[in-house]
Amino acid sequence: MGQTTAIAPKMYHDGYLECNALSLVVMLEQFRERSLELEHLDKGDYTGGEYEGCIIELQKVNRWLGDAQALKDSLLQEIARLNLQSFSVIDVGAGSGELLRVIACWARDSERKAYLTGVELNARSAEAIANESKAFAEISAVRADAFLLPFADNTFDYAICSLFTHHFQDEGVVELLRELNRVAAFRIFVIDLHRHPVAYYFFTTIGRLFLHNRLIREDGALSILRSFKPQELQKLAQRAGLESSRVKRHFPYRLVLTATSRMIAEN
After folding, report:
1. Are 132 and 22 within one domain?
2. Is 37 a domain residue?
3. What is the count of structural domains for the chain?
4. Residue 21's domain spans which residues?
5. What is the reported pLDDT for 1?
6. pLDDT score of 124
7. Cβ contact 267:186 at 8 Å
8. What is the phi-psi region of residue 50: left when phi exceeds 0, alpha when psi lies from -120 to 50, beta otherwise?
C-alpha cells in the first residue's frame, strides 16, 4: 500500500505535465502561420445594428490599444521632424475615419494645414467617415476599391492604412502595398496586428470583459490569428518592391511598416 500511495501522485503529476505540454504545443501551432478563416466583416454576415456597434467599439480599441499612438509615433512624428506646414494623407480602409480625425486634431493643434481623404468600399463606412467628420472640413470621404484607387500617381504626400492588411491573403497584401506606394509621393505607413500568443489570450480573456459587440469579440480574436509576424510583413513589403522598408514593433502588439515612396526612391 505504501508503494501505491507514493507512485500514484507521481503518475498523476507526470500526466498533468504531459497534458499541459501537449496543450502548449497545440496552442503555439495555431500561431505558426496566418489563419485564412474569414472574419464576419469579410463575409458580411452581420446586421446593421451590429455594424454600428462595431464602429463604436473599434474607436475605443484604437484609443486603448495603440493605433492612434502608433500613428503619432510614425506619420505625425515624421511630419513634425520635417516641419511640414501643409500635407496630404490618404487613409485606405479608413473605417469610420477615426485616425483621420486624430491627424486633423493634431494638425490644428500644431497650426498645420492638412488635406485628408478616407477611402472605404463599404457604403456604411464611407458614410460614417463623412457623418462623424462634419466638424472637420479637411476630411473627405471616397467610396472606392483599395486595389484600384481613383487617384493619379503621387497624388498624396502620405498613404496609410491601419488594421486593414490582415483582411487579405498574402498576394492581396502585396497588391495593396503597391497601390499605396503608387499614390504616395513621400512615404507609406501601415499599422497592423502582431500575431502573438500573448496578444491573442489577452484579447480573449481580459479584452472580452470590456468589449460586448459580437463582431469585435469574434473578429478581434480572429484578426490576431490572421495578422503578421514582423518578418512576414517585411517579406511582403519586399515582394511589393517597396524601397527602404522596415517593420517596427509598437506597444501593445502592433506592427508599423514604413517605406519610402517610389517617387522619392527614383529621385
Report:
1. no
2. no
3. 2
4. 1-30
5. 45
6. 87
7. no
8. alpha
Which residues, in sequence order, are CB contacts of 34 under 8 Å at separation 6+?
Answer: 166, 170, 195, 225, 226, 227, 228, 232
Q: Is residue 39 part of a domain?
A: no
Low-confidence ranges of the chain (pLDDT < 50): 1-2, 4-7, 12, 16-17, 19, 21-22, 24
User: Cell 473578429, residue?
Assistant: 219
Say how far apart CA 115 and CA 144 lie, in whole Å: 18
Q: How many beta carbons lie within 10 A of that of residue 56, not counting itself?
A: 11
Per-residue pLDDT at 7: 46
16, 97: one domain? no
**Cell 527602404 sits at which residue?**
244
User: Could you tell me if 138 and 177 lie in one domain?
Assistant: yes
Q: Is the alpha carbon torsion for 13, 26, 195, 219 positive or negative?
A: negative
**CB neighbour list of residue 141: distance below 8 Å, 6 or more residues apart:** 94, 97, 117, 118, 119, 120, 126, 127, 129, 130, 133
Whether residue 4 is found in the same domain as residue 56: no
